[in-house]
Design goal:
Largest sheet: 8 strands, mixed
CATH topology of the largest domain: Aminopeptidase
Number of strands: 20
Distance between the termini: 38 Å
Helix content: 25-40%
Strand order of the largest sheet: 1-2-4-3-5-10-6-7
CATH architecture of the largest domain: 3-Layer(aba) Sandwich
Strand content: 15-25%
Structural class: alpha/beta
Oligomer: single chain
CATH superfamily of the largest domain: Zn peptidases
Number of helices: 17
């Protein structure tokens, strides 16, 4: 799916206009013989923030035009698309390190494949701008050594519809850009980073199609924090669902992330650590509006647990901030997420583990997912730098450790989970070691165009020894069967297909020993969340002789996407088709028994 010829022609014309606009610089090279070097126009190519002294962020057309200029200037850069937004904007994909941008060429390299995505929340624009800068540096010939062992696939603008809804009222307490940024949701008003299981949005469906076709080993999702008054230029998270393969978690927690943290501190003086969602029992932060003598900014720090969620020890910051979890307030009423720890001293918690979040879903696909969050109270330019440096060091690590990364994902793909305990739900796990947590003082500065207060760090930092909750453990598990037997309803079948999960259809009825789930309770949420009224089911699996009709979908679990399939099909999973209200008709027809059954017996077609 290549960009249209008419757009390419227009963009090549734009590239020429860039050269003309440089006047004397371009003229100096007039008449010289062709040479394998970048045009003079490319070195002067600027992003919109650079052109506006960091008062504005790039619009969709800015991004597309910028990418076209890079692709026209550098034979190393290949530009294609891999899907569309709700409003029909093409999702760009820049490929570097393969002979062309096709999935076949990318996979044929045998290199570590890294997909990097910016702007899923279009008010969090630093990743978008950082990736444009990084791609320009590649077009200028920098980082050539990466591509001996790495293929990069970059989409700077995953949520283009949200990006075009620029407003000075979006994220007003953030420290710029003062000319406004886009909105969090996409054109359907969905939070795309809650849609990676139900797949209601074309953007997330395009993502899953990309995952199936290109199969990146590493996925990096670039964000900006929502209000925590910590003192880290960069915070991050690996996949947090406790069903994630241990080898995938290990290479991130004990390899890549600490190595990147160390290098960024040594090279840049930047502090990084695990993403901080809730801060509790730190008196200086208990006001929830920034702290210290500088005074509060409007909507400034998150406070103990008060900034977004409520009192310490309740589900509070941990549950409510991003997840919209029951009891936490948050953004909606979808059950799930996590309860906050009942800590008596200073402690902090990381973000949500549920599979609706992109990086957590990526982990269930046996791939290395990395969430990054720049600190919203740094100046806009500094946030862009932090995002770029984080990505650069991830790529450096991948280049140096490509065999280990490929082995971790290959091993996870090959290992069968049939008969193994697979976590369905999780609870925050207390780390055995305490951590010297850094937090900052904030002060207020006015946006000159709105008169509203923005919060900014004063640079004054403090530390406190704190308990940390930066991972999750299983609170409820199930034993993975050989296969699930799924009624061929349209909603379920097409979403399995959208995720790329293989299945077969029975061409004759069978009777087989297996299990059915007897429902003890089934309740709808009090309000809708992301377009769905969630359903919570309780009960238990019991042995049964199953009479399975023709046309039933057989989803075998001895496959690379077995973990993802379990989380989509189990009734107790917080992100199953049933939990998202996608099986209402089937549940109404037989309210005592869950319509999906399972078996560990051999099925027709099994070896």
């Amino acid at each position: 799916m290549v960009l249209k010829r008419s757009i390419l022609i227009r963009t090549l014309m734009m590239s020429a206009l860039f050269a003309l606009s440089l006047g004397p610089v371009a003229a100096q090279n007039a008449g010289k013989p062709a040479a394998p070097q970048v045009p003079a126009s490319l070195s002067a190519l600027k992003t919109r923030p650079e052109r506006t002294n960091y008062t504005e962020t790039s619009r969709y057309q800015d991004v597309i035009d910028f990418l076209h200029v890079l692709a026209a200037a550098s034979p190393r850069i290949h530009l294609t698309t891999y899907g569309y937004s709700f409003e029909g904007r093409a999702l760009p994909l820049v490929v570097i390190g393969a002979k062309d941008a096709s999935p076949e060429a990318v996979k044929a390299t045998g290199k570590v494949r890294i997909y990097i995505e910016g702007n899923i929340h279009a008010g969090e624009v630093e990743g978008k701008e950082a990736m444009l800068e990084l791609l320009r540096s590649i077009a200028l010939g920098q980082h050539a050594g990466w591509f001996n062992s790495v293929v990069l696939m970059i989409n700077p603008i995953f949520n283009p519809d949200g990006n075009e809804r620029i407003s000075l009222s979006n994220r007003p307490s953030q420290n710029g850009p003062i000319g406004g940024e886009g909105q969090r949701a996409n054109g359907q008003n969905y939070d795309l980073n809650r849609d990676f299981m139900k797949l209601d949005a074309p953007e997330t469906r395009s993502f899953e199609l990309m995952m199936s076709r290109y199969d990146p080993h590493i996925v990096v999702d670039l964000h900006t924090t929502d209000g925590s008054a910590h003192a880290y230029q960069m915070t991050y998270a690996p996949p947090l669902h406790p069903a994630t393969p241990a080898g995938v978690v290990d290479i991130l927690r004990n390899g890549l992330l600490p190595a990147v943290t160390k290098v960024m501190k040594a090279k840049d003086g930047m502090d990084s650590y695990y993403y901080i969602e809730g801060i509790m029992n730190v008196p200086e932060l208990s006001r929830g509006r920034g702290m210290g003598p500088g005074g509060p900014g409007r909507g400034g720090g998150q406070g103990a647990a008060a900034g977004r969620a409520g009192a310490a020890g309740a589900q509070g910051a941990a549950a409510g901030g991003r997840a919209g979890a029951a009891g936490g307030g948050g953004r909606g009423a979808m059950p799930g997420g996590r309860g906050g720890p009942a800590c008596t001293g200073p402690c902090f918690t990381t973000t949500d583990y549920t599979a609706r979040y992109g990086i957590n879903m990526v982990g269930l696909r046996n791939r290395l997912g990395i969430l990054s969050e720049t600190f919203s109270y740094l100046p806009f330019q500094d946030r862009i730098k932090a995002a770029r440096r984080f990505v650069e060091e991830i790529i450096n690590y991948a280049q140096q450790h490509s065999p280990e990364i490929q082995k971790a994902t290959d091993d996870a793909d090959k290992k069968s989970i049939v008969g193994q305990d697979i976590a369905l739900r999780g609870a925050l796990a207390k780390s055995p070691e305490k951590f010297e947590f850094l937090y900052t003082e904030l002060t207020a500065v006015k946006n000159p165009y709105t008169g509203q207060n923005m919060s900014t760090t004063t640079g004054v930092r403090h530390s406190v020894t704190a308990d940390q909750y930066i991972s999750f453990e299983a609170s409820e598990s199930t034993t993975a069967p050989r296969a699930y037997l799924v009624p061929a309803t349209r909603y379920v079948q097409e979403r399995l297909e959208a995720h790329g999960i293989p299945f077969t259809k029975l061409d004759q009825p069978i009777t087989i020993k297996g299990e059915q789930f007897r429902i003890e309770s089934s309740a709808l949420a009090a309000s809708a969340y992301e377009g769905h009224t969630a359903r919570t089911i309780t009960g238990k699996w019991e042995p049964a002789d199953l009479n399975v009709p023709v046309g039933t979908l057989v989803v075998r679990i001895d496959q690379p996407l077995g973990r993802l399939a379990v989380l989509l099909l189990e009734p107790r999973s917080e992100d199953s088709f049933a939990a998202w209200g996608l099986m209402e008709d089937s549940l109404a027809a037989q309210p005592q028994l869950f319509p999906i059954t399972r078996t560990s017996e051999k099925l027709p077609g099994d070896k």
